[in-house]
User: Fold these one by one.
Assistant:
Number 1:
Amino acid sequence: MDAERNPMAAAASAERSFEHSRDRVLEEIAVRINEDTDIVSARQKGRVLASTLGFSSSELTLIATAISELARNIVLYAKQGEIVLRLLERGEQRGVMVRACDQGPGIPDIRRALQGGFSTSRSLGLGLPGVRRLMDEFEIESRVGHGTTVTARKWKR
Amino acid sequence: MEVPILKQGPYLIASIQSALSDADLVQLRDALVEQVGRLRSRGVIVDVTALDVMDSFATRTLRDITFMIRLRGAETVIVGIQPDVAFTMVQLGLKLEGVPTALDLEEGIAFLGKKDTSPAKEASPRGR
């Protein structure tokens, strides 16, 4: 899963925490994303999976919304890809990981893609700043012409 | 999943029953914008009580509906945004600026009733 890393991804270095060797995968679901109805099914599966860890209903809504934004980026920019949902254990903590992978055009300017909000003209409208705010950890790797992988995690408090 | 649109006197009520795909939201927008003219409605209520997620696309589409309907000469109110959804929207920085919201259907109808009797509204021609 650990794809070749792009120097551009350094833009997100503050948030970057590479695939943690301490993370134990408790469960994994992969959802193919080919069309807009898959966005709904990905977020519904994510909500159900995360609910098994006992997240509050507002946290489940945050997680489902983050999945929705990431899945939509796939449909809009890469046409197809995959959302991988995992339940993780890291030491005493349990949480959920959402990973969106595609072989789409890639993001030329990650720094810019992470700027601003939905309403600012400087934002690229990818919804990535929002996902970053919703989740506890956020990583992005993207290579122009090869694709994008966004990984976000939320830990149960 | 098409959203049923009910005509209730001078108002249209779109009651969302389940999760909507992006295409469903766009379909709802186009149907409301068309029907508000055909049925000469004074107001539109979009009930989102059943929506468990309002992401950037849903928010943008609801805003588009409101502004398009306003351009057609009628008023829209979004009702039933759930507490968890409101929390997430605030976290995301999603705003519904310029979009009236109300707690539920009853409040939405009351809101439109107040709007409808405003002098400005009565004075404005209802050309379609």
Note: The first helix of chain A runs from residue 36 to 51.
Number 2:
Amino acid sequence: MARRVPSILGCAVVSCLLASSALMSTFGGTPAGAVPAAGTHDGVTLTLVTHDSFAISKSVLRAFARETGITVRVLPSGDAGAALNQVILTKDAPLGDLLFGVDNTFLSRALDEKVFERYRSPELARVPAVFRIDATHHVTPIDHGDVCINDDKAWFAEHKVAVPRTLDDLTKPAYKGRLVVENPATSSPGLAFLLATVDRYGEDGWRVYWERLRANDVKVVSGWEQAYNGEFSAGEGGGDRPLVVSYASSPAAAVYFSDPRPTKAPIGTVLDTCFRQTEGVGILRGTEHPRAARRLVDFMLSRRFQEDVPLQMFVFPVRDDARLPAVFTEFTDVPTHPAILPPSAIGSHREQWIDEWTAAVLR
Amino acid sequence: MTAPARPAAGATPLVRWIPVVVPVVFLVTFFGYPVATILGRGLWPGGQLDLSPLGDVVGDPGLRDVAWFTLWQAALSTVLALAVGLPGAYVLARYRFPGRSIVSALIVVPFVLPTIVVASAFLALGVEPSLGAILLAHVFFNYAVVVRVVGGLWAHLDPHQEEAARVLGASRVRAFAGVTLPALRPAILAAASITFLFTFTSFGVILVLGGPTRSTLETEIYRQTAQLLDLRTAAALSILQLVAVVVLVVVAGRFQGRRAVALGLRATAATARSVGSLGDRALLGANLALMLALLGVPIAVLVARSFATANGPSFGFYRALGELRSGNVLFVPPVDAIVNSLLFATVATAIALMVGGLAAFAVVRHRKGRALEAALALPLGISAVTVGFGFLIALDEGPLDLRTSWIIVPISHALIAIPFVVWLIAPILRSIDPRLREAAAVLGASPRRVWREVDFPIVGRAFAIAGGFAFAISLGEFGATLFIARPERPTLPVVIYRLLGQPGAQNFGAAMAASTILMALTVVAILTAERVRVGDIGTF
């Protein structure tokens, strides 16, 4: 009785597999760049593994393809931690040729796992020393961003409360119940803000500081989206907390992504609360195109790429002669002395600090 | 009472084994092998079996608490979803009322929504992160599972059986408990199992709506694998997950047992009745009000936000969807994201119906079918990060190097959808009265004709419901693909996450617009699936 049934479905399986393999060849693997043109690397396609926040203009990659003949295929692979871990786990059969998105909080893991080839780009000469996070030249710095407290200007004006200026201010009664932060165990800006407090108060003092923040009713959420769009009073979700851990570039983004565009930024940045994240690219060990990969690293440090970075990823270029777009120069304040911790110190203490933070703030 | 497991005379062994072999090969290739490889990295470091992480995990009181919380919140969520969903299943299966098919399509909408989007609606409605918020969200997401899985069978049950019991003097409760409940048992167990597994491995809901202090095995495995790269602990936790899932599936299988009864299944048109008495009206009204409050209100918040631009109600955010970041190399126009979503969902549904359909036959016809059924449920209960990272390190050679191919996305969606297909179809196959088939055969019908005229019309509706679910799973799935390197074919959920990653009213509004489009696609897809007419009995 069952005889015919399987054969009908069986045939269907075969045709499905055939159809999908045909689809795969027509539909899959189209590179995101543009037509390769004249150059020394004609026909080479580089795969750039990166995190989900990566963005760059099509026209910029097209210019690179015209100049060099190299097509770049972008492969977003989860958040920054997940992307790096995927690269580490696939060391023996690399997923791509380069990894973009290793910052100073994850740098030491990348170096320990030896996933990168050494490369010292000549373009580094245009990068100030403060951004050169890797003295061993496995990771080339590309951009930086400052994780800072943002304030809702309208809220502070309306309630006639002064905007806090320092980390210490946040523990004062005036700001009780006003701050929302992200959990450093699950959020990259959350971790950066924890590191800002470690840098400011030292190994002995940061727990005490967080206990005071806790006593001042700090709110902890899992990720940036919930903090900014859920709890922040100037975010889109209509929250009730006028202080949030976000980025120094957030005021520019808030203006840029509004219609109509306001003439003044609706949010400000508390400059004494910042931690600097510097993010870079590395050439994956085992790439078949090391020379082309180096060309891409050089290109990522070129003015063309560097000047495209701000409006695409809302971070700052590292190159000293890269011009910032107007929305950045008009609406963002850049901290002059952000907290900076050596990557090796972060690497060796990250988990311990997160565990201690969890015990001090959440338990 | 089920069809005998003997082979049909003359069937070649190959043909006979296809329903077993295809699902097994699929499962081993795309689940067993990748998961074993990643667990191996954790438990066989340097070629030596080291089981000490298991001891460490079991001995860690913090992790024991996590495991215990994972279990009981899933159990509680399942009970609540059943309690809220069963009356809904009844009214949608039994009552004829205007708009019934729209309502039964609308309830699937929550299923496809990204957690972060739902959480923002909940927050707007004053639901603060808490245990209550987790349970509410789990009921919100799984309501459709209960209503449609149980309702799918209920709609076919012959109401005359219960009426006969009443005529013979049984009370209303007794007639329900003695006649209807046993008949529904396989579907209730399937719905409970699916809900339990979904909530057992729930990720976004726990992180976003549970608050920072709550974690489950799933969030812990994510942290260990994606953040800390501690594969030893992750492997030990994954094994705990596996054990729990296997126990659940085996227990559920026991309850279903071999006692599945052949039911006199009837066309839905013959079982539904119009709303007559006051009691009927009250029951229907109460359920519709509940659906409105539980599902309708949060959805309405999202839709309203998608139109609430600074210049008043307009399609501004929908236009923004096509304009924001349009120069970006990873940008896709909304139409392309819709096409990508539909294409992935179509391929995932085809794979799931094919593999799951074959498996359902194997489960019913082969003696070892139960083991296959249990094995196919495993992907539902295993962490997405384990499977995703497993893909990366296992499928890296030769023709199986699918790591950066788009096909891996629908395959990972199909893995989640296959248990639905099996659990929806197998109980119905079992319930087909064998006398129907025998009668047809005696009257001279060929086996093919028996299948076409007897089995298919009844199973067809289950196929349609399962296909609708598979489609919805794929449309909304983000968790599984989060950990797979995705080539440049972003789907709507991916677009939504990208938009929500940066500040600004336009980003947020465009994300709401994309969510609304995703919801609309779901309703259209489900309504289309339901329009498929499969013989008289499967007519909706």
Note: The beta strands of chain B are 95-96, 273-274, 308-309, 312-313.
